[in-house]
Design a protein that fits this description.
Layout (H helix, E strand, L loop, with lengths): L4 E6 L3 H11 L5 E7 L2 H10 L4 E4 L8 H11 L4 E6 L4 H9 L4 E4 L4 H12 L4 E2 L1 H7 L12 H11 L4 H8 L3 H15 L4 H10 L11
Parallel strand pairs: 1-2, 1-3, 3-4, 4-5, 5-6
Length: about 210
């Protein structure tokens, strides 16, 4: 019989951790070694224990999942870390992967998909659940909804780091109107954060219209 795959669960919500543990323990080839409640515990435990796969939550008190992932991989670069999160935005997913995570699984996936993710990273492959993969799929410019001229103007202002209030004053519109434009811009571009809007503006030459140095 082959050795079992050792797993550690890191999540600050006891009910979530216990639920995942119960699921994984139903598989004969998995061995849940520990359930930890924060990044600091994970870093300390994994420093002195060799584990095959770590299921790491993102948002935890103190040391969060991304920082913990980086810290663990500094000393054990071959550790397979799977991010298990409720956040499906491209920013979260791409950031997690850039920090060295081997995969990203949303917490609302069918239980068997967590097992599939573990098996996949054990084969040395990257795993993204369907929801995460869909969030990262590039959208062709021709498939995007086009921005209205007003939305392009608002994007230009936001990309320069201006607040909603500052944009409202500059364009002589209400703050609520700016917020609505901002929401529509993010939806049309498939971007979830202000940093993402700024990056889009830089990559597409929007800021060059003002002579702002990028």
């Amino acid at each position: 019989m082959t050795d079992k795959i050792s797993v550690v669960i890191v999540d600050d919500h006891p009910m979530v951790a216990e639920g995942i543990q119960s699921i994984l323990e139903s598989y004969d080839d998995l061995d849940v070694r520990a359930t930890l409640t924060n990044g600091a515990e994970a870093v300390a435990y994994l420093k002195s224990n060799t584990i095959d796969v770590v299921l790491m939550d993102l948002n935890m008190p103190g040391i969060g999942g991304l920082t913990a992932t980086e810290m663990v991989l500094e000393s054990k670069p071959d550790m397979r870390i799977l991010i298990l999160s409720m956040h499906d935005s491209p920013e979260y997913i791409s950031t997690a992967l850039s920090h060295g995570a081997r995969g990203y699984v949303l917490k609302d996936v069918p239980t068997e998909e967590i097992k599939t993710a573990i098996d996949t990273v054990m084969r040395g492959e990257r795993y993204l659940c369907t929801g995460a993969k869909g969030s990262l799929e590039p959208v062709e410019d021709g498939d995007r909804e086009t921005l209205t001229s007003r939305e392009q103007t608002v994007l230009l202002q936001l990309a320069q780091g201006k607040s909603n209030k500052e944009v409202a004053i500059e364009l002589n519109i209400s703050v609520r109107t700016v917020e609505t434009h901002r929401k529509n811009i993010k939806r049309k571009l498939g971007i979830s954060s202000t940093a993402g809007l700024t990056r889009y503006a830089i990559e597409h030459g929007v800021l060059q219209q003002t002579g702002v140095q990028t």
